[in-house]
Amino acid sequence: MTAIRTVSTTPFPDQQPGTSGLRKKVSVFQQPHYLENFVQALFDTLEDCQGQTLVLGGDGRYYNDVAIQTILKMAAAAGFGRVLVGQNGLLSTPAASAVIRRHKASGGIILSASHNPGGPNGDFGIKYNINNGSPAPEKVTDAVFERSKSIDKYHILAREAVALDRLGETRFGAMTVEVVDAVEDYAQLMGELFDFNRIRALLTSGQFTMHFDAMHAVTGPYACTIFEEQLEAAAGTVMNGQPLPDFGGGHPDPNLAHAKDLVALLNQDNGADFGAAADGDGDRNMILGRGIFVSPSDSIAILTANAHLVPGYRAGLTGVARSMPTSQAVDRVAAQLGIPCYETPTGWKFFGNLLDANIVTLCGEESFGTGSNHVREKDGLWAVLFWLNILAVRGQSVAEIVHEHWAKYGRNYYSRHDYEALDIDAANGIIEHLRASLTQLSNRSFGGRQISIADDFAYTDPVDHSVSQHQGIRIGFSDSARIIFRLSGTGTEGATLRIYLEQYESDLAKLHLDTQDALADLIAIATQLAEVKQRSGREAPTIIT
Ligand code: G16
Q1: Do 41 and 137 belong together in one domain?
Q2: 68 vs 84, 128, 338, 479, CA distance in Å?
Q3: Which one of 114, 148, 327, 372 is the catalytic residue?
Q4: What residues make up the domain containing 487?
Q5: Does ligand 1 have an atom closer than 6 angstroms to the CB of 116?
Q6: pLDDT per residue as tens digits for the range 179-212
Q7: Is 20 a catalytic residue?
Q8: I want to staple 411 with a disulfide (CB 3.0 to 4.6 A). Which of 22, 113, 403, 406 is the partner?
Q9: Nearest in space to 233 (alpha carbons), one of 282, 268, 287, 275
C-alpha cells in the first residue's frame, strides 16, 4: 500500500488562467508548491475524480518531465483510475485532444506555453481540457482560480517517479499509468480525413518539394511519421525535427519573424513549392508557398472555399467560425456557400460549444490557428495536410491558389502590430482610454472614412447563452475596414497590446500591394486613437505579423 501524503500550503494570488491556461516563467512554476496548488485547485474543482481517466502530456519544454511526475502522483492521490500519458511525456495539443476523445477520458492536462520560448529562463504552462477535448470553458477556469485563492493543502502519492519511455501499463498506487504512443491515434485520424494516396503521389512526383519546420518542438515526431514515412516525402523534409527542452534556443512561434530559415528557403530562386511550420505544442501553423506567405486569416478562408476537395469535408460544412480580430475574409466565402459564420472572442475554447452543437465545421484565428470538428483544438499539422490535399487536387501553386481566391472574393489586407512587455498600467490605460472614447467615436470619420461601429466586444454563446464581456475594442468603418485593440492573455512579461488592422480591396489592380503600405492610413488612425506613443513611450511595435 503506497502512502498518500497531505501537504500544508498557502495560496498564490496569481493563478488565474489566461487565454489558454496558466502561463508563467519557469522560475514561477519552480517555487515550492506552485504547481501543486494549481493542480489541487483543479482536482478540487472537478469534484469527482474517482476512477476517472485522465490524459496527460506536454510539448517537452523544460520542466515538462518534473511537472508530469508531480501530476501523476497527485492524480493517484485524487483517485483517478487511469492516466494515459504520451511516451516520454510528449503529446501535441491537438493529439491530446484526439486522445481524450478517442479514449473517452474525463479530461486532460496539457503542459505547454505554446509558442513562448522555453528553457530554464523561458516559459511554462498548464491547461485543462474537458471531456470533449476542448480547452476548459471560462466557468471552469474561473472556478479553479477561485479555489486557488483559498487552497491550504494538497495530496500527493509518496512514490518514486514512473518510467515514461516505454509503452505499456504500470500500477501506481491504486491507479494505472498507461504510456501511449503519442503519434499513433493522431496519425490514424489524419489518414481518415485526408487523401493520403493523392498527397503521396504529389510528394513523390519529383515535381514538388516541401519543407516542414518543427522548430525543435513537439511536432517533430508526428511530422517525421506522417510526412516522411507515411507520405514518403524526401528524407530531410522535416527540419528541426527533434523536440528539445529549450527548442534549440529558438522561439517556437511559426511566423515570418521566428521561422526565418524556412522563409529564406521559400524565398530563394528555385525555392521549394511549399513550406510550413508549427509551434511549441503543435496547434499553430504557418503556410508558405514559393515567394508567398499565406496570412492565417486568408488560410481559413481558402480552406473553407476548397473544403469540398478534401475527403473528410466533402459532405459539406455546417458553418464556420473565426475569432473577432481575425479578418472577415472567411465571412465572404461563408456568404457565398450560404453557411453561417460565427464571430467569437479570442481563445479556442469559444469554438468548443459551436463544434459540439455541429453548427460549425471549420474554425480559424489570426494567431496562426486553424482547425475543425475532428478535435477541439486548433491543429497545425492538420492545416498543413489540408493545404497539401488542396495542392494535390488542384495541381496549382500556392501563389496561384491565393491569387485566384483574391480575384474571386477580394482581398482583406491584414496585419497585427504587437507592443510587447509594456508597463501594465500604461497598457490598461490605453484600453480604458479607448473604452471611454467609444461613444464619441461612433459618429466620427477619418480621412473620408466613416466609423460605423465602435464597441467593447461582448459575446453571447449561441449554445449555452453564457456571456463574455470586454473581449476587445472594435472599431469598424463603413467600407468594412476595422481596427481592433486588445491586450494579450498569453504573455508572461508586462502587458502586450495587440492592434489588428484590416482593409478590404476588390479592385483587381490593387490586389498585390505591400500589406503595410495598403494599411498605412489605418495604422496612423490606430496609433492616434490609442495614444500609443504618449501613453507607452513606444515609437513602434515590437513585432508586426
Ligand atoms: C492561444 C489561444 C488562441 C489565441 C492565442 C492568442 O493560443 O488558444 O485562441 O488566439 O492564444 O491569444 P492572445 O492574443 O490572448 O495572446 P496558443 O497557441 O498560444 O495556445
Answers
A1: yes
A2: 12, 14, 46, 51
A3: 114
A4: 411-544
A5: no
A6: 999 898 899 999 999 999 999 999 999 999 999 9
A7: no
A8: 406
A9: 275
